[in-house]
């Protein structure tokens, strides 16, 4: 089932007159695990941020994105904020609260859950992540890997169907990075969460992902299965 699609999407940043995306077409199916690759400046971040509707609003956009068959702009903003989660490179910029427990409750507080429901959701999430021991810690006391896991957990508590990640392991050591990517694999396998990730750790990811989309200068160069790329290399 198609969950997210781009139809002839082009985007130009007015500040630099850079056309970052040029007539992009892509169909993402529910349960896909997509790795987005390409040289620096090829348009990867721009594509994710357009889907998340988190980009220079004065930028010049052509074409459209659809989520579950309806244009992004036709969905209620709160619905899209919940349905499409995004994790950035630096958890420090995304985490809002000082304590882990507060951080995990933070996103849920505006969604009308009772305290009992919120605590139950948080308990289930920390159990899934195996991070019960971090609940009473201060965020500032955590390692980079732990911060990024907390960040991911707080995004997931909103129960997104699609998760976008822009170089989430760039600041993590290799072991923490592997643990983070393994967690994504479990989310994809066990809950069918659709994942689109910009990542450089291709060795780890090619074993997990079912699609690789390569951008070059704002265009899709290929969209294929990882094993085909490995075969061609
Ligand atoms: P990638 O994520 O693949 O490195 P980006 O999407 O960040 O690529 O950038 C694509 C192009 O758009 C680049 O040429 C970059 O310089 C330009 N660009 C990105 N962000 C901005 C911005 N905020 N203002 C102006 N130009 C930008
Ligand atoms: P990425 O890790 O996605 O490649 P960059 O290092 O290209 O990120 O960009 C970092 C930040 O600078 C982003 O917020 C991006 O929007 C902004 N940026 C990138 N290129 C330009 C540009 N040509 N003009 C203005 N801002 C830019």
Automatic annotation (TrEMBL):
Places the protein is found: Cell membrane
Taxonomic superkingdom: Bacteria
Transmembrane residue ranges: none
Domain ABC transporter residues, every copy: 4-233
Family statement drawn from the similarity comment of this UniProt entry: Belongs to the ABC transporter superfamily.
Protein name per its UniProtKB record: ATP-binding cassette domain-containing protein
Species name: Salinibacillus xinjiangensis
Lineage: Bacteria, Bacillati, Bacillota, Bacilli, Bacillales
Residues of the whole record sequence present: 1 to 233 of 551
């Amino acid at each position: 089932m198609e969950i997210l699609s781009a139809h002839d999407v082009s985007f130009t940043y007015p500040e630099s007159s850079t056309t970052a995306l040029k007539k992009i077409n892509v169909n993402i199916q529910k349960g896909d695990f997509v790795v987005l690759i390409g040289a620096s400046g090829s348009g990867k971040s721009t594509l994710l941020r357009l889907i998340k509707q988190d980009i220079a609003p004065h930028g010049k956009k052509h074409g459209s994105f659809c989520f579950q068959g309806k244009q992004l702009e036709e969905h209620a903003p709160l619905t899209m904020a919940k349905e499409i989660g995004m994790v950035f490179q630096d958890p420090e910029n995304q985490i809002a609260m000082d304590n882990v427990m507060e951080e995990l409750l933070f996103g849920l507080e505006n969604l009308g859950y009772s305290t009992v429901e919120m605590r139950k959701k948080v308990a289930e999430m920390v159990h899934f992540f195996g991070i019960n021991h971090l609940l009473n810690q201060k965020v500032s006391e955590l390692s980079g890997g732990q911060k990024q896991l907390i960040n991911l957990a707080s995004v997931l508590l909103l129960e997104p169907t699609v998760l976008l990640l822009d170089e989430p392991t760039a600041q993590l050591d290799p072991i923490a990075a592997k643990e983070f990517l393994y967690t994504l694999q479990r989310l994809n396998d066990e809950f069918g969460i659709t994942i689109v990730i910009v990542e450089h750790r291709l060795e780890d990811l090619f074993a997990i992902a079912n699609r690789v989309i390569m951008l070059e200068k704002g265009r899709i160069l290929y969209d294929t299965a990882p094993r085909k790329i490995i075969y061609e290399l």
